[in-house]
Amino acid sequence: MRILIIEDEKKVAKLLQQGLEEERYTVDVAYDGESGSQLILSETFDLIILDILLPKKDGITVLKEIRSKKINTPVLMLTAKSSIDDKVEGLDAGADDYLTKPFSFAELLARVRSLLRRGTVEKSTTMKVVDLHLDTVAHKAKRGEKIIELTGKEYALLEYFMRNVNRVLTRALISEQIWNYNFDTGTNVIDVYINHLRSKIDDGFEKKLLHTVRGIGYVLKDE
Ligand code: CA
What are the 10-residue block averages of pLDDT along the chain, 223 residues in total? Predict the structure, then answer.
């Protein structure tokens, strides 16, 4: 699940990002309305956390703009004031829910979960490759009857592979998608993570799912 935070207060944005990443979400951050709306138009997110008071373009404008382009990603608005007008304006503009600052992280997380659940009602919440199952709401994996415990990064990696079954994913793609920046090509962090993930999903099973494509990257195969 990929979440975009649009918030100009760097400290708040950072805290939210860290907290959500610990909960195994993939998080992108934009610090103003303009770069935020550009990201929404060019990439796909499962949820947007949108502050109202933002430089360059305010949150309400961003929201109206994306809704007019038929982008229906759930939006959680952050309002600085507890003003009723702000909330009404936000909801009128197409926000799905709002939180008044200051709020607790637990409260935010509860809203995030509920919005993501709502958004996935029509979509299936379980992905399947051969006998490997992934619940994208509960963030749980199972191979056959064996429950697989995953760390946050491992979960994000596995979801990425399962969304791209039989497609070779390069280290550059993986690093961009999961870590949001490019690793020094000299490091083997990605390989270490993938080896851990591979032993969790493939060890003890005759059919191996995660394969190395020498010199290029990795592929999750269902054939
Ligand atoms: Ca702000």
Answer: 95 94 93 96 92 93 91 88 69 84 90 82 73 86 93 90 90 81 67 94 96 93 89
Residues facing residue 143 across a β-bridge: 132, 146
The CA distance from 215 to 132, in Å, is 26
Taking CA atoms, 186 is separated from 169, 183, 193, in Å, by 18, 8, 15
Residue whose entry in the numeric block shows the structure tokens 């939210």: 16
Q: What's the CA-to-centroid distance between 178 and ligand 1, angstroms?
A: 27
Q: Please state whether the predicted TM-score (pTM) of the whole model is above 0.70.
A: no
How many Å lie between the centroid of ligand 1 and the Cα of residue 106? Answer: 20
Cβ atoms within 10 Å of 153's Cβ, excluding its own = 18
